[in-house]
Design brief:
By secondary structure, this protein is α+β, with helices and mostly antiparallel strands. The chain contains four helices and ten strands; from the N terminus they run αααββββββββββα. It has helices spanning about 35-105, 110-115, 120-200, 340-345, and strands spanning about 230, 245-250, 255-260, 265-270, 275-280, 285-295, 305, 310-315, 325-330, 335-340. Strands 1, 2, 3, 4, 5, 6, 7, 8, 9 and 10 form a ten-stranded antiparallel β-sheet that branches. A hairpin with a 3-residue loop joins strand 5 (about 275-280) and strand 6. Helix 1 (about 35-105) runs antiparallel to helix 3. The relative contact order is 0.18.
Length: about 350
């Protein structure tokens, strides 16, 4: 994947922002599983996130269908114009034949013309030729009229189908806009809960999210499905006292965050520069960190599988905008990070 948007639901590129030397260590508290209004907001965001994705997919499909139907309507109109022109030519041909017959005595009865003709056999031959030509042109005009009638019907159907699809696409666009407005409101409430938890230094506990269908064919996945890469491993700048220790994935608040592989949750923490964070231990002695979250869906000690939703992204802690900060470490603690992109690529997950 390139650094461009994979899907058009993303926000401007944010950056993790923390002073590592000055940052307080994450607080170990994690609370009990969340029920009630707090959990309802997380569930609402997750549902609206899925609804928005489906609405966008249906809108794009409807737009493509409408474009195809519009192209058919334009083609039918072009064919109809061509048929009309050909019919006009046939009418002109028949008119020329009739005028020629009139000039050569076509107004006289055939018997009189034969009596007056110098070469009656030639007149008979010409008359037969004229009759055959007239019949051919008449049949051609009749066929052209029938073809024109079919084209008129096809044009009307194509135009009606296009108008119906345009109406449906407009309705889908309105539905998508409504869902996105509700999602934006729910994201704000979700982040407000996260900020309150970080300020209190106590995580709200695990929320219950409806998990996506399990994909048992993949041992490793990217930490988010839809994203744009922002600050990378080793970046430097005014936002960090040292170089950046992870990879940032620019995503909106509430985006489902996935366990990249099978493992066990070793930490759920709030407070400090990373805000709400999760650390997962994996076989082979590696650990992955997911930071600046708005909500968590797992508890310490819980086993996770690849692709499982373990939380929702946010902008908690020392962060300049919504994103997921993702690290790969050789210990559970800060200061042992590896470049996560090559690490994922070695496990069959190209990220870029």
């Amino acid at each position: 994947m390139s650094s461009s948007l994979r899907r058009p639901l993303l926000v401007a590129v944010p950056l993790c922002a923390w002073a590592v030397l000055a940052a307080a260590p994450p607080l170990p508290s994690h609370g009990q599983p969340v029920d009630g209004p707090d959990a309802a907001v997380s569930a609402e965001v997750a549902r609206l996130y899925r609804d928005a994705a489906v609405a966008t997919q249906r809108y794009e499909q409807g737009r493509r269908e409408a474009d195809a139907r519009r192209a058919l309507a334009v083609r039918a109109e072009a064919l109809l114009d061509g048929q009309r022109r050909r019919l006009g030519v046939l009418h002109e041909d028949l008119g020329r034949i009739a005028r020629a017959q009139y000039r050569t005595g076509g107004s006289l009865p055939m018997t009189a013309r034969l009596l007056l003709a110098d070469h009656p056999e030639r007149l008979i031959s010409e008359q037969h030729a004229f009759a055959r030509t007239q019949a051919t042109v008449s049949r051609a005009i009749d066929r052209s009229r029938r073809a024109q009638a079919r084209l008129v019907a096809d044009e009307a159907k194509a135009a009606a189908d296009w108008r119906a699809l345009e109406k449906r696409t407009t309705a889908l666009a309105a539905l998508r806009k409504d869902i996105e407005a509700k999602l934006e409101d729910a994201r704000g409430r979700l982040q407000g809960q996260a900020d309150a938890a970080v300020a209190a230094g106590s995580c709200r506990g695990a929320v219950r999210l409806d998990q996506p269908p399990a994909d048992g064919t993949r041992a490793w996945v990217a930490p988010v499905e839809t994203y744009r890469l922002s600050a990378g491993f080793g970046s430097d700048g005014s936002h960090w006292a040292h170089r950046h220790t992870g990879q940032d994935f620019a995503v909106p608040i509430g985006t489902p965050v996935r366990a990249v592989g099978a493992g066990r949750v070793v930490r759920v923490a709030c407070g400090g520069a990373f805000g709400i964070e999760i650390v997962v231990g994996h076989p082979g002695g590696y650990y992955t960190q997911y930071a600046h979250l708005a909500a968590v869906a797992v508890e310490p000690g819980q086993r996770v599988v690849p692709g499982q939703w373990i939380g929702q992204s946010g902008t908690s802690g020392n962060s300049t905008g919504p994103h997921l900060h993702f690290e790969v470490r050789i210990t559970p603690d800060m200061g042992s990070a590896l470049d996560p992109l090559p690490w994922l690529a070695e496990r069959g997950v190209p990220v870029g």
